[in-house]
Amino acid sequence: MACSFLCRPWYVQQAGELPNTMVNPKRKSWIPAISALAFLLPCALHAQLGDLLSEPVEEPLPAARSYAKEPPLAPEAEQGTFQLPHGFRIDLVAAEPLVHDPVAAAYDLDGNLWVVEMPQYNAGMVSEHSPMASGTTSLPPSKIVKLESSRHDGHFDRRTVWLDHGLVYPRGVLLVHEGILIADPPRLFLARDTRGTGTCDDLQVVADNYGIPGGVQESGSLLWGRDNLVHDVAFAFDYRYTHGKMERLPVLSRGQFGISQDDFGRFFFSLNSDQLRCDLYAPAYNLRNPHVTELPWANVQIAKDQEVWPSHMTPAVNRGYHKGVLGMSTGGLRDDGTLLEFTAACSGFVYRGTNFPSHYYGNAFVPEPSANLIKRNLLLEAEGQIEAVNAYQGREFLTSTDTRFRPVALVNDPDGSMLVVDMYRGILEDYHWITSYLRDQTLARGLENPFFGQGRLWKITYDGGPLEKTQPALDRMSGAELAALLAHPDSWWRDTAQQELVERGGGDAVPALETMALHGKTAPARVAALWTLDGLTASTLPLLQEALGDESPKVRSAAVRLHERWLGHPDEDQAVSQLAAVVNDPAPEVVVQLALSLGQAKGESALEMMGRVLLLGGDHPFVASAIATGLRGRELAFFERMAGKTEEFGPTPESRAMVRILATAILCQGDPKMNQELVAHLGDAGMLPDWFRLAALSGFEPLLQPPFRRSIGSGQVMESSELDPLVSSTSGDVRTGATSMSERLSRLEAELRAKAVPSRPMTADELKLYDEGKVTFQICAACHQTNGGGLANVAPSLVDSYWVGANPEVLVRILLNGKEGTPGFPGSMPAIGAGFSDEQIAGVLTYVRNSWGLHAGAVSLATVAKSRKDNGHRVADWTEELLRSLEMGLSGRVR
């Protein structure tokens, strides 16, 4: 990516001072001296890609205007900068030259550590000769290395470079029987050693649309879940992995880098300024009914407090020129120069070992590498919901005064301790996002040196806490021995034994697993055994029936979900009948799981039981939506079932919510006959009580929302005139509500008719582009979602975007350079199209402009080529104002 440089000298100040502000024609930038020796910069500084045109001045706050050089520290010196609670210690287990630029790690069956090394991170700085590259002219390849401990004491002393080619930005590994799954977006690799040489000789692409190319903040964190699926929160699919074959399962993309699970398979993850979120129930339910979008258990922000407490000044953060304001996620600083709130949260992690004191088990730890700390959260659970609260006030679990300490991943160690992956480098921010402010702070403090090549692995232990001394050798254990490990107090052994049994197909372990599932001493052991049996297709209905009576609601919930293997099949009635035992379960989490699982069934008996769940357990806020997600195509039938039993259901909040959700789902299907039936039920002839009719009318509100209307498709949306039977109702309340809805709809319809543009069918070539674009869009779906509806606080809806339907040349420019300043979305859209071919851009834009009820026309290859040429060497992202000006220049008018 070419840039024009404005040549100018650097002026030298006395050590410890920042120079006066220097101004270039584009923006003001504080340019600190690198040393007390005068010299001229051989190539000028220029605006950075992360600069916001809406913020032309990036003036350091007072605390950030004095500086001192921060040289890199030897591992022993870095160790002296750490602060931990009393009784804890942190020890080095590997450092350069044994490990370089580590970003992820995983233990194998023998306790060896496989590390992802990414020296290629920020290679753009090198290719563009940025001063931040510190004169580096080339970078070594990214690698997968194997670390071994010859003394078996957890301190590594042997390094094997297992793979040193074919990778660019790898950021996650999952060890499987056939080799290693490696996440290197947009590719997911299966790497193998087929000749037994101890190095990789076969690198296969198992997915080529796995996330955003070079989007380091996105996909790549692979986890074998309790449910025996491979998960990643920042991608639109989970996978069922079986002997080298990957079956894709669509899910909502909902996080960024890092994913962890608790003992029961609930997922925890982060967004950069949102430290901890959780899927309270399996993500598989979230997309099974496109007519239901209220998913209160999915992607839940369980940690509301984003405040952090570094142990030293942290001015070298990307938006450190902002004054920090609690709750605003500005990325800014306090008056004392410390970061106020999370800005680089990653790898939300549940500690599940026994070395720490018992009250630490199940706590969630979140690294904040830009502030050199790790936060500890207590997870408080009640009524099937989780709240994360700070374990401390005004301090953190682990802090360091070394700016290069970059904790980017945490691992549950086989010995029950915590492994910390420390990337150890001065420049953390991705080159495409870095600001001129951060560049200047980085150079002033000497953080660009060294540019790559360092890295440390640390182990946190508690003095006096137990440490598992057994050397792992799970590949040499029998099925029964592995089954016994499901009761191990440290989670690494349980998780690894489960995966090994399932991949091995350990039928010899079934008797031991059945005993563990029913009589294991702990709930985590019993749950793990149940899921292992399911992974072996060895579950039985009698076994699950007994598990439904377990004393632990976690076990009962797992048993309910595992009945799904039989649901949706001709012999589902026995499974449904068994589930009746927990319809009135005292634990809300069991009732919600039952509501979700019954949606997998297809028969009348399951529909009848859903009604009973709503009656007996519907006061939980999740139940109505949980039932609705399982009613795809049967919403009207369930609505009619409720309409026939209004006295039984009664005007409770849960019944009203269920009726509202059902009405919206019926309208969302865009079936004129169903719409007529719905209105007929609500008319006076339906003889329904007013509470029921008004609840249903409240479900009509989304008809006023353009994204909802477009998701239905033109010609299928209910029109205002269809409400006439309700407008003429003899019930005053119904008449008032229907009249208001009809009048608002009528006004909206008139506005839409005035703006309507005739559409034409796409040609064969355009349809080909559309189909190819659908594949490419899976990369975009990581943020914008498969339904184009966007992701809160991450990416706006495409369905209702002005720019999607605007001049296609403008849309091409957005893909090439990115866009900032979308209201309600603090981040900028990355320049994702910069790495796309003309064919990919034309395809994906054709798909976006003609999906979800949109008919904006195709985008030709010629349009893309022209836009790319006209765009020249532009690198800055676009603002709303600049796009409007561009549009006016292209068309001579503003749409």
Which short descriptors sum up this protein?
single chain, 895 residues, alpha+beta, 6-stranded antiparallel sheet, 4-stranded antiparallel sheet, 30% helix, globular, disordered N terminus
Can you offer a commentary on this structure?
- Helix content is 30%, strand content 15%.
- The strands form eight sheets. Strands 3, 21, 22, 23, 24 and 25 form a six-stranded antiparallel sheet that branches. It has a four-stranded antiparallel sheet with strand order 4-28-27-26. It has a four-stranded antiparallel sheet with strand order 5-6-7-8, with no helix packed on it.
- Helix 4 runs antiparallel to helix 5 and helix 9 packs parallel to helix 11 (588-598).
- It is globular.
- 52% of the residues are buried.
Please identify the structural class as seen in this structure: alpha+beta
- Which band does the percent of strand residues land in? 15-25%
How far apart are the first and last residues' alpha carbons, in Å?
A: 31 Å
- The helix content is 25-40%
Mean pLDDT: 89
Shape: globular
Short description:
This protein is α+β, with helices and mostly antiparallel strands. Strands 3, 21, 22, 23, 24 and 25 form a six-stranded antiparallel β-sheet that branches. Strands 4-28-27-26 form a four-stranded antiparallel β-sheet.
